[in-house]
UniProtKB/TrEMBL annotation:
UniProt record similarity statement: Belongs to the LysR transcriptional regulatory family.
The protein's name in its UniProt record: LysR family transcriptional regulator
HTH lysR-type domain mapped to chain residues: 1-53
Gene Ontology molecular function, alphabetical: DNA-binding transcription factor activity; sequence-specific DNA binding
Pfam families from the UniProt entry: HTH_1, LysR_substrate
Species, as recorded: Myxococcus llanfairpwllgwyngyllgogerychwyrndrobwllllantysiliogogogochensis
InterPro entries linked to this entry: LysR-type_TF_proteobact-type, LysR_HTH_N, LysR_subst-bd, WH-like_DNA-bd_sf, WH_DNA-bd_sf
Keyword terms of this UniProt record: DNA-binding, Transcription, Transcription regulation
Cross-referenced CDD domains: PBP2_CrgA_like
GO biological process assignments: DNA-templated transcription
Gene3D superfamilies: 3.40.190.290, Winged helix-like DNA-binding domain superfamily/Winged helix DNA-binding domain
Length: 294
């Protein structure tokens, strides 16, 4: 099953054999024995290409989950007798992961040398079960789901613009004034084009006019620095820019709702000691919001 899965994902016996450290002929015989036992072809083979049959695609979906559960069970049991070990797949939001999780990794690896980390940095929604991910870190309101979540930290957002943009313009005096300004919108935030503000007991909801939408917060930061408009960006990203005067806070007496940073993992599975170790380590290091807030 492991050999078939490796070939199916690489679509190459040679590449899969190198990954598993066996010969291609040995791997081919193993897959052939599996097909004989199942009574159906899982792969189409030509001299140049390997592809999945319909049965192979269905079998790959099921056996990926089975192999993941086997790996979790082995890691959980082995972890009872010593340090956590095994491969740990973690999905991280791109920018937050680079700025605030990646710097923690060397210390984590020194503390848990038997864990093999596999990190992916991307802002898209990752299906943990479908993609075989052990832990994901997500920012923002979590949709209702069956995932188990642990809150790690809180992210505060600021409304900012560059001095260049504000030069010669009347700054917004109240949230409703934003309708007259081009706004820079982060695509993945649930609030979309409707921005909510609070000031004490006051609440204001404004429909903004996005001049730029992007699924990468760094692109929005660069656009704000370039004088393209007003944006709501996290303090972990623009705090230094505000302190240095490269960006200026707008509507400073109004607040934008904070969002949480969460570690999530699928329920109903053995939570391996390696996953528990990673979540606990990151939670410890992120406690108290390590980024400065202006």
């Amino acid at each position: 099953m492991l050999g078939f899965s490796a070939v199916a994902k690489a679509l190459s016996f040679a590449d899969a054999a190198r990954e598993l450290r066996v010969s291609a002929s040995t791997l081919s015989r193993r897959v052939a024995r599996l097909e004989a036992a199942l009574g159906t072809a899982l792969l189409r083979r030509t001299t140049r290409h390997v592809s999945l049959t319909e049965a192979g695609a269905l079998y790959l979906e099921r056996c990926t989950d089975v192999l993941h559960r086997v790996e979790e069970a082995e890691a959980l049991v082995s972890g009872l007798g010593g340090d956590p070990k095994g491969r740990l797949r973690v999905a991280l939001p791109n920018l937050f992961g680079q700025l605030h999780v990646a710097p923690l990794i060397p210390d984590f690896m020194r503390r848990y040398p038997r864990i093999e980390l596999e990190l992916t940095f991307q802002d898209r929604y990752v299906d943990l079960v479908e993609e075989g991910v052990d832990v994901a870190i997500r920012i923002g309101a979590l949709p209702d789901s069956s995932l188990v979540a642990r809150r790690l930290a809180t992210v505060r957002r600021l409304l900012v613009a560059s001095p260049r943009y504000l030069r010669g313009r009347k700054p917004p005096a109240r949230p409703q004034d934003l309708s007259a300004h081009p706004c820079l919108q982060f695509s993945h935030f649930a609030d979309g084009e409707t921005w909510t503000f609070s000031r004490g007991a006051e609440r204001a909801t404004v429909r903004v006019r996005p001049a730029l939408r992007a699924d990468n917060a760094e692109a929005l930061r660069l656009a704000a620095l370039g004088g393209c408009g007003v944006s709501a960006l996290a303090t972990f990203l623009v705090g230094e820019d505000v302190r240095a005067g490269r960006l200026v806070r707008v509507l400073e007496d109004w607040s934008i709702p904070e969002v949480g940073v969460f570690a999530v993992h699928p329920p109903g599975r053995l939570v391996a000691s390696k996953a528990r170790a990673f979540v606990a380590f990151v939670a410890e290091r992120l406690a108290g919001e390590p980024w400065d807030s202006p």
